Structure formats: structure tokens, C-alpha cells
Amino acid sequence: MFPSVGLRAVLRSSAGVFRDSSALGAAVSVRPRACSGPALFSGPAVNKVSGSFAVPPPVRHYARVAKKKKTGPESHLDDLSPTMLKMDYAAVPLAQSTDDLVKRLLSLELANHREKLELKKEQLIAKVQRDENDRNSVEVQVAILTARIRNYQEHLQKHHKDKANKRRMLMAIDRRKKLLKNLRLVRFDTFEKVCEQLGITYTFPPEYYRRATRRWLAKKELCIKVFKAVQKQRAEQKMQQRLGTTEAEEAKAPQAQTT
Predict the structure, then answer these.
(1) How far, in Å, CA of 29 to CA of 52, rounded?
(2) Nearest to 176 by CA among 160, 152, 154, 158
(3) Using one digit for the tens of pLDDT, what is the confidence trace for 35-46?
(4) Residue 85 β-bridge partners
């Protein structure tokens, strides 16, 4: 209640001041407060004759430049045409003769990621399988693992902190390495064909997997010193044995001459 009474008193006093100034005809000069925005008062702020404030023109806020959308990495599912039918309806003859609306509902345009991945997996299997009924050969297993690995890689590019899927990806890579290694030893021609069809670059694993830490380097240096010391001790023992045998032979030689 008290703030409202004070506000009314201030308004009445200000109205009285303006009324007196208009009656006397005196020019009232009012200095506007300094403001941070320089474009708020573009014209004259106060009329000196009437003492009324001039309304500033509206400030135009121009639109910002549109930012370019960030283009993500290319997906291994981009080569799938959106007009292709889903895997469950591709072999149905009735789905080919329906109208455009039903075809759109059954196509990959409205399919989820899992359905697209299943179709991509079937395409990779069809490239390397031995016959139409082949589902368990080494080539088919490599194709299935390749589709999974590429899906994990695409997922980890967006969610790099997903440790569970990263572990699954590394396990799938190790499994595929073992299969390709065995296939290379057994059937080299098939191995080259699988790598060419699936776009896989096979690299030979390193001979030693241990990480060279400071503790491991110190332990290795100590082991080398111990090995050299043992070899030196064994060489000295052999030399002593040889000297002992030669001395024994020399001692036996004069005894034989005397006899």
C-alpha cells in the first residue's frame, strides 16, 4: 500500500511541474539519461517548447546469417535406395502390384535403422556365400561381422563415450581377424575374394603385443644382465674343467714314461 501512495505523489508533482511550465511558456530542457544502446534515440529527445518527449523510430533488427548444417560422416547404409522394399516384403509378389501409398509404407523410406541394417547384411552375405542355402560358412560369418563392425563404428562416431558398444566392436573385430587368418591359411583364393567383395584390408598382427612400460623395460634389462652373468659363469666353469683335464693328462704322462 505504501509504495502505491508514494508513486501517486510523484506522478502528481511531475504533472504539476509540466502544467506550470506550459502556462508560463518557458522552455524546459530535459537531458535524457545516458543509455548503453546508441540507436535508442535517433531524433531529438525532447521538444524545448512543449516539454514533451519525442517517440524514437523503431530499430530494425536484421536477421542473422543462416548457419550451415553440420554434415555427419557417410553411413554404410547410404547406398540403399529409399524405394527398395523391406526384406520381409521383397519376395512377396502382391507387394509389387500395390498402389504407390502402400509401396511407400513397405519401402525403406519409412523403415527404421534395424530393418535397413538387416537388408544391408543380406546384401553382404549374397556377395560371398557359396550357394543360396549357405548360412554358416566362414565367408558368411565374416560378412555378418563386417556389417556389425561398420554399424558400431558409425554409432561410436556420434557417441564416443559408449564404452559397452566399443567393447562389442573390439570383440567383433578380434573374431573376424581369427576367421580371416584361418581362411587365409586354408583357402587363399577365397580369402582374397572375400576381402575384395567386402572391402576389407587385412593387416598382419604384430609379433609382440606387450606394451613397453618403464617397469617392463627395467625388468627386461635385469633379465638380460642375469642371462649374461649366467652365460659367463658357465663359460668359466667349462674353462676350469678343460684346465683340470689337461693338468690331469699332463700328470699321467710322466708316470707312464717311468713305467
Answers:
(1) 10
(2) 152
(3) 444 444 445 555
(4) 107
To the nearest 10°, the Cα dihedral for 97, 100, 103, 109?
Answer: 150
Spatial distance between the Cα atoms of 147 and 125, rounded to a whole number of angstroms: 10
> Alpha carbon 246 to chain centroid distance?
74
Reading the block at residue 1, the C-alpha cell is 500500500
- CA separation, residue 159 to residues 164, 165, 174, 191 (Å): 11, 10, 22, 33
Backbone angles phi, psi at 87, to 5 degrees: -65, -30
- Please name the residues in contact with 205: beta carbons below 8 A apart, sequence gap of 6 or more: 177
Q: Which residues pair with 133 in a beta bridge?
A: none
Q: What cell numbers appear for 234 in the block?
A: 658357465
Neighbours of 92 (CB within 10 A): 13
Q: Give pLDDT tens digits for 107-141.
A: 888 888 888 899 999 999 999 999 988 989 999 99
Instruction: Label residue 199 left, alpha or beta by phi (over 0 means left) and psi (-120 to 50 means alpha).
Output: left
Write down the residue that cell numbers 663359460 correspond to.
235
- Lookup: cell for 167: 567393447
Q: Find all residues with CB under 8 Å of 50, minimum gap 6, and list them.
A: 22
What is the reported pTM?
0.53
In degrees and rounded to multiples of 5, residue 107 shows phi and psi of: -90, 180
CA-to-CA dists, residue 176 to 67, 135, 147, 167, angstroms: 42, 16, 11, 14
